[in-house]
Design goal:
The complex is a heterodimer of chains A (257) and B (382). Chain A is of the alpha/beta class. Chain A contains 9 helices and 10 strands. Classes of the chains: A alpha/beta (257), B alpha/beta (382).
């Protein structure tokens, strides 16, 4: 099977990370996420009642192999993000946080300046920080410098299902990164997920494409297989793509003359 | 003909919508909309990024034969953005005291009805009822009576109920920017302020007395909210006062202006149709169910991330069906009289509720349709 992925103190067999939004019921969400075999599942703090152990979403994710990844969706700046992370650490007993700061409520695009600020502070406070960001290679290096445990660049606007629109930049990030690169947002089909894995992403995060499909359980399985296949291809080293046939050596044939 | 949208204002950042608004006349807008052809509609349906000219085509009479197609696209876009979910909220009427005369409203100053403003104890009694129903997003509503339900009363109410609700919205008289800032510090999330009608001359006739008769002050309220940095602004017009096609265009124009100016703020649109009440104004321009579906879908096609909200003014049958076509936020079992839930359930309402189903029955209907009922989708971080 695929090599394991390690982030901070945790090791994952599955490179498919998932989310909890947009499902038509918590039961269906649970079924789909179990089939996906995902071990890291993000949940929006604003959607759960963190003081209630019987919260519908949390109760459905209470399984030994599932690690909850609280996200800060809804915050607009670094200050609110730090507050949210501390709230979740206390209530959900995890120091892992998916740092999402999108002051723009329409396209939910991440604010790079506030994200860097919050990341630095959260790392100092002992959090495992997983920042959701643009596919910006320089920002990734800056985040790495302040001590984040991975980076989560977007493939396309969140929820858009458009695939790897940022591929050229993702490739630079993957080439340069010293921390795992998780492609987050925009992955709309299993082939997109496989593609991300083939170009060397360490994992992908998929939510909308599973939750909103006609059959979320089957789709979750399709993503599971696609991520495994893509990773397997990456580990086996894909043959390079050739633009033209290379049957003979017209330019260097003279050397043999 | 006035062309397109607010692009002409680019580069010169304005301080209020009034400056954009004055470039338009009611009659020209209405003429434009009514002149849209089948070709315009087909273009609006085929394109991916729709502008206000496309929107005019989609709300025009020419779009009527394309209603099913609009509904299909609307449903698909809504699912993509919001998934299979429906946000629940409950209105909580705090007071029916009002110094405004509004020709269409049951709380109008001259209406001889018993007036009531809830005390803290009464508010908490209503809160207890709503919490036991499951509500976590609440909409506080008052009339406009500055002596009794001014900003201090509203501020007190927000502080009082904050421990019980994740998300607090108000629908009260327009306030000043610093007043909004004060309320936000204490937990206010959103403000709904409907222009009622964008027909400036007719607006005066519908609002002959009281602070509400100042058209421009109301029109600029969303600007003050945006400048205060509010999380969400709700817009709308009261359909039936004037030709709804022009009113809905101006609402969209207002929305597009605000989205560019206050890009960190979220927006919602509501679709109130005139309902019978104890004041008794009949709709001037009737809006049919098909019209309402058309414009809800037109909004979704214009903007796939917009919150579209529906009250219990509409019938059970209509609501059962519209929840699949673009609406993302909805109330149930509402009472539009202060104290109507638990304090004094028999008092007079602002308008008649049409869908009287219990919250349990209503949410069961949503679940049966494959929609996850969302009670909580906010947390006050800070």
């Amino acid at each position: 099977m695929n090599q394991q992925l390690t982030i901070a103190d945790k090791t994952f067999n599955s490179r498919l990370f998932t989310g909890t939004g947009k499902f038509s019921s918590s039961k269906l969400m649970q079924e789909a996420l179990l089939v996906s075999e995902s071990e890291l599942i993000t949940v929006a703090l604003k959607r759960v009642d963190i003081n209630n152990e019987d919260d519908d979403i949390l109760a459905h994710l209470n399984k030994p192999h599932i690690n909850l990844l609280p996200n800060t969706s809804g915050v607009r700046d670094a200050k609110e993000a730090v507050f949210a992370a501390e709230l979740s650490r206390e209530a959900l007993e995890t120091n892992w946080v998916k740092l999402e700061i999108h002051p723009d409520p329409r396209y939910l695009l991440p604010d790079p300046i506030e994200t860097l600020k919050a990341a630095e502070e959260l790392v100092k406070k002992g959090f495992v920080v997983m920042p959701y960001i643009h596919a910006d290679p320089v920002l990734c290096k800056r985040l790495e410098e302040v001590g984040v445990q991975c980076v989560m660049p977007l493939g396309a606007p969140i929820g858009s299902n458009k695939g790897l629109k940022t591929q050229d930049f993702l490739e630079i990030i993957i080439e340069q990164s010293n921390v795992p690169v998780i492609v987050d947002a925009g992955i709309g089909s299993p082939s997109h997920a496989a593609h991300a894995m083939e170009i060397g992403a360490d994992a992908v995060l998929v939510n909308t494409a599973i939750a909103v499909s006609q059959n979320p359980v089957t789709m979750a399985k399709a993503f599971k297989i696609a991520v495994q296949a893509g990773r397997m291809a990456f580990e086996a080293k894909l043959a390079p793509v050739k633009k033209q046939a290379e049957a003979s050596s017209p330019l260097t044939k003279f050397l043999a003359d | 003909m006035i062309q397109n949208d607010i692009a002409k204002n680019e580069g010169q950042k304005t301080n209020s919508f009034t400056e954009t608004f004055k470039n338009y006349t009611w009659d020209e807008v209405l003429h434009d909309i009514n002149s849209k052809t089948i070709n315009d509609v087909e273009h609006a349906l085929a394109t991916e990024k729709r502008d206000l000219e496309d929107f005019k085509a989609l709300i025009s009479p020419a779009a009527k034969p394309f209603l099913e197609q609009m509904a299909q696209i609307s449903r698909q876009l809504t699912k993509k953005r919001f998934g299979n979910t429906m946000q629940m909220y409950a209105p909580l009427y705090l007071s029916n005291e009002c110094q405004n005369i509004c020709t269409y409203c049951g709380f109008s100053f001259t209406n001889k009805i018993p007036r009531r403003t809830l005390t803290d104890a009464e508010i908490l009694k209503e809160v207890k009822y709503l919490k036991q129903k499951g509500f976590d997003h609440v909409l506080l509503v008052t009339g406009e009576a500055n002596q009794t339900v001014g900003v201090n009363y509203i501020n007190n109410a927000i502080k009082l109920i904050k421990p019980y609700f994740s998300n607090i919205t108000i629908e009260v008289q327009p306030l000043e920017k610093d007043e909004y800032e004060l309320l936000m510090q204490n937990g206010l999330y959103a403000v709904l302020v409907y222009q009622e009608t964008y027909h400036k001359e007719e607006y005066k006739k519908h609002h002959p007395k009281g602070k509400k008769s100042n058209f421009n002050y109301r029109l600029e309220t969303p600007d003050r909210l945006g400048q205060a940095g509010i999380h969400k602004i709700g817009l709308g017009a009261l359909f039936g006062l004037e030709d709804w096609r022009a009113d809905i265009f101006f609402t969209a124009l207002h929305l597009k202006y605000l989205q560019k100016q206050y890009w960190k703020t979220k927006y919602s649109i509501s679709f109130p149709r005139l309902r019978p009440h104890s004041g008794g104004l009949e709709p001037k321009v009737e809006m049919t169910d098909a019209d309402l579906v058309q414009l809800i879908c037109a909004y979704r096609l214009l903007d796939e991330d917009l919150e579209l909200s529906m009250s219990t003014r509409e019938s059970e049958h209509f609501r059962n069906n519209i929840v699949q076509l673009g609406i993302t936020s909805i109330s149930s079992e509402s009472k539009t009289n202060p104290g109507g839930y638990a304090v004094e359930p028999k008092s007079l309402e602002q308008f008649e509720i049409s869908d009287e189903r219990s919250t349990e029955d209503f949410t069961q209907m949503l679940k049966d349709q494959g929609l996850e009922v969302v009670w909580k989708d906010w947390e006050h971080f800070g």
